[in-house]
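Quick one: structure for this chain?
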Amino acid sequence: MRSEKVEDMTALSKVPRKAKTMNPVSSEQDSSLEPDRAEERTPSAGKTSVKHTSHSLKAPSALKRLQPRVALVEQVVERVREGIFSGEFPPGSELPAEGTLAKTIGVSYTVIREAMRTLRSHGLVDISQGRRPRIKPAGPEAVRETLDAMLRRSHSSIRELTELRRPLECEIVALAAQRATPAEIDQMQQTIERQAAASTLDAQIEADIEFHNLLAGAAGNALFGLVLSTIWGLLWESRRQTISRVGIDHALAGHRAVLEAIRRHDPESAYRAMQQHLAQIAEDVPPTD
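Got it. Here's what it folds into:
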């Protein structure tokens, strides 16, 4: 796609340096975070002077004063996000150079660099050496990678994963039973046969996950595939544990029952077959210590 240069930078008007979002802690609140000061009045040449004594009260780390530069980065990120979502910065277009952005918005070059890194991590811009930041086309990759990372870091258990899959995949197969084409059904059959013939654990898991991908595709709703794709990393680990423990027969039996119901275009039977398949997976999970 031929890139466009963004000339109208209305969305990138200067960031107010004293915006309330930069320092939600008021000056009165700030005084509560300083060491307590007790006033002692002592007479001196007929006048009363005030002497302050400090006490060693430290503020909780969570209540320390915000750094203005961090708030500025967040404001720049939000400005660019709004421009992208509103269409002011269309996919494939180039933002101005980072130095120009810094001058236009009224922040430092370092703030712009950090904001661009954040936008890149969100899958919104592409940054290459020697090139201007480019707006990336909309796609599921960033969402999938982010959710997969969150799920992995949450240490979700296989049983929790199965509970998440149950309402999704039961609905998927019910829809697939109504919408699957003969070609899609043939692909599912071939995948089951490939899983049965696989001689390695990795090949068995790969065919297992492909079968579920085909089910999501046959449901006729692209969002099912997008949502499920965020948990494939966890699903791979789940199947590694269950198949290595009990073998491939349980998985094959479950897949065949689901496919048979889809072949008959029987949504209720497909729903029940998937329920039983996922219940069997839950039983096959290795016991925890």
